[in-house]
Automatic annotation (TrEMBL):
Coiled coil: none annotated. Pfam families: DJ-1_PfpI. SUPFAM superfamilies: Class I glutamine amidotransferase-like (SSF52317). It comes from Kribbella steppae. This is Putative intracellular protease/amidase. One of its GO terms (cellular component) is cytoplasm.
Length: 203
């Protein structure tokens, strides 16, 4: 039965923004509202530990070179200073392979700039912090920018840094892990602090 558990690969690199993907990882790993638990596998360019923006030291489970899209079900990329230094190409290459294989990629904050720089947003609807942030990368996808908290286009999920709950919601929606009603309740509880939505969330 364990072999049927789905896997989310999570890119880890120096100063990755741990809070941006925290909501999503908790829901995938615990399955507390979806009823489906996922494997969370951290991947980095080397086996050396990395330190998150919040100061947590993470020892990667795998190196990027060993990641094959057919062995995973999702790639998650968080923001980091490295994206704004025009780095992270090794991760965007893996993202491209995931998208080409029909596997979802979820990118938030600076990771959207990395995907923009790699040309992966040119023909897909997407969002980020603000449109100007992505235009500064020189990408050709400005016409596909959508001013929303989170955007799903096929296998691509994007969000800005102020929308970790919407990012989680959109990714869970793309993965088919919860009904619209449950997703509405999830956002109501964790974004708007609305206790009246809790019964629908756990129901």
């Amino acid at each position: 039965m364990l072999s049927m558990t789905k896997t989310a690969y999570v890119g880890v690199y120096e100063t990755w923004a741990d809070w941006e993907i925290g909501h999503l990882l908790v829901e995938l790993r615990t399955g507390r509202f979806t009823g489906e638990q996922w494997n969370i596998v951290t991947v980095a360019e080397s086996a050396e530990p990395v330190t998150t923006m919040g100061g947590l030291r993470v020892v990667p489970d795998m190196v990027l070179a060993d990641v094959e899209p057919e062995n995973g079900d999702l790639l998650v990329l968080a923001g980091s200073a490295l994206w704004d230094e025009a780095q992270g190409e090794a991760f965007t290459k893996v993202a491209q392979r995931f998208l080409e294989a029909g596997k979802p990629v979820a990118a938030i904050c600076g990771a959207t700039a990395g995907l923009a720089r790699a040309g992966l947003l040119d023909d897909r609807k997407h969002t980020s912090a603000v449109k100007e942030y992505l235009l500064a990368t020189g990408y050709q996808g400005g016409d596909n920018y959508v001013d929303e908290r989170a955007v799903i286009d096929g296998d691509l999920i994007t969000a800005g840094p102020d929308s970790p709950v919407q990012f989680a919601r959109a990714t869970l929606e793309r993965l088919g892990l919860a009904s619209d009603e449950k997703l509405d309740a999830y956002e109501a509880v964790f974004h708007r602090a609305d206790p009246s939505a809790y019964p629908a969330l756990v129901g």
